[in-house]
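[AMINO ACID CHAIN]
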Amino acid sequence: MKREELLQRITIDPRVCSGKPCIRGTRIWVSLIVDNLAAGSSEKEILSAYPSLKREDIRAALAYAAELTHDRYVPLSLQSQDEIQAR
């Protein structure tokens, strides 16, 4: 499945979950999926916890998160650029 097809699985509707990006047809937030993956949950565990999800929905959440990081970033600490580049 191409990235464009994956991203079509994501919806943003102000009337659903206050406009948070969700998997189409659900109230499952993209951030919930990404947070679970970051915490070490496996794809199998996520699919088990949220039976309405499909494998492609997890990939779609990751594709959406990747899109957000292309042009924008959030600094995680107050370190100077010199300290970061020295690593």
About this structure: Strands lie at 10-11, 22-23. The first helix runs from residue 3 to 7. The mean pLDDT is 90. The chain is about 50% helix and 5% strand.
